Amino acid sequence: MSLTLRYMQLSDIRQVATIDVMCFDPPWSHESYAFEINESNVSHMVVLEEIIGLAPPEPTRRRSWLDRLRRKGRGAVSALDGSGVILGYGGLWKIEGEAHVSTIAIDPAWRGKGYGEILLAGMFGKALQLKAQYIVLEVRVSNSIAQSLYRKYGFSRVRRRKNYYRSDNEDAWDMRVALDRDTRHRFERLYTKLRLQHGFLDSYSRKSRPRG
User: Fold this and answer.
1) Which residues sit opposite 104 in a β-bridge?
2) Which residues have C-beta within 8 Å of that of residue 56, sequence separation ≥ 6?
3) Which pLDDT score, from 0 to 100, does residue 53 have?
């Protein structure tokens, strides 16, 4: 098994949309994802994928492997042909000097393993590659776990946005980090440690956006 951080493709939309429905209300439409991937000039969509090889041929071992795979998460059944399982996804908009985290989510079945930090670090690195001056995101005021992760990367609260989430009118914190020299050095230390811990392949943060 191996983890890969890469640009989102049209073929990923089915898995991504399934996670989106579990994580957000309202979720994005399939058409919205297609637009972000193929048409938007400012969008850089990313997925965290786990590659799982084909099952062993022996019937007893194969059944056990399938059982373990299904217990891992809903999206895992897509790996039966040796393809990848999307564990989470994110989106980054780069508009002039601002990099905006438009969305970030991990399949609930895969949470608690540090995968959300991999996605955040990938988008942070992409913002640096795109020469953004700062990064912006919104987070629920009740989501203390996410806020703790964002503070780890230097984000701080700027303002409280009233009734930001349409599903329940919860407020959001507008959090930002300036990409100055100290922030860059902090990020490089955190990114290096993260790569050593998880051994993931990064085909996103320092790669150009694919076209067509």
Assistant:
1) 90
2) 62, 65
3) 61
User: Residues for the chain: how many in total?
Assistant: 212
Is this model's pTM higher than 0.90 or not?
Answer: no
Tokens representing 193 are: 């440690």
Residue the block writes with tokens 């776990």: 145
Nearest C-alpha neighbor of 54 from the set 82, 77, 75: 82
Is residue 165 annotated as part of the catalytic site, yes or no? no
2-41 pLDDT, tens digit per residue, is 999 999 999 999 999 999 999 999 999 999 999 999 999 9
CA-CA distance, 164 to 142, in Å (whole number)? 13
150 is catalytic: yes
Q: Residue 54 pLDDT more than 60?
A: no
Question: Mind listing the domains of the chain with CATH numbers?
Answer: 2-203 (3.40.630.30)
Catalytic residue among 89, 115, 150, 204: 150
Report the Cα 1 to chain-centroid distance in Å. Answer: 19
Distance CA 208, CA 109 (A): 31
> Of the residues 7, 138, 164, 170, which is catalytic?
138
Three-state DSSP at 48 gives strand
Q: How far apart are CA 129 and CA 92, in angstroms?
A: 12
Mean pLDDT of the chain: 88
Q: 193-206: per-residue pLDDT in tens?
A: 999 999 999 999 99
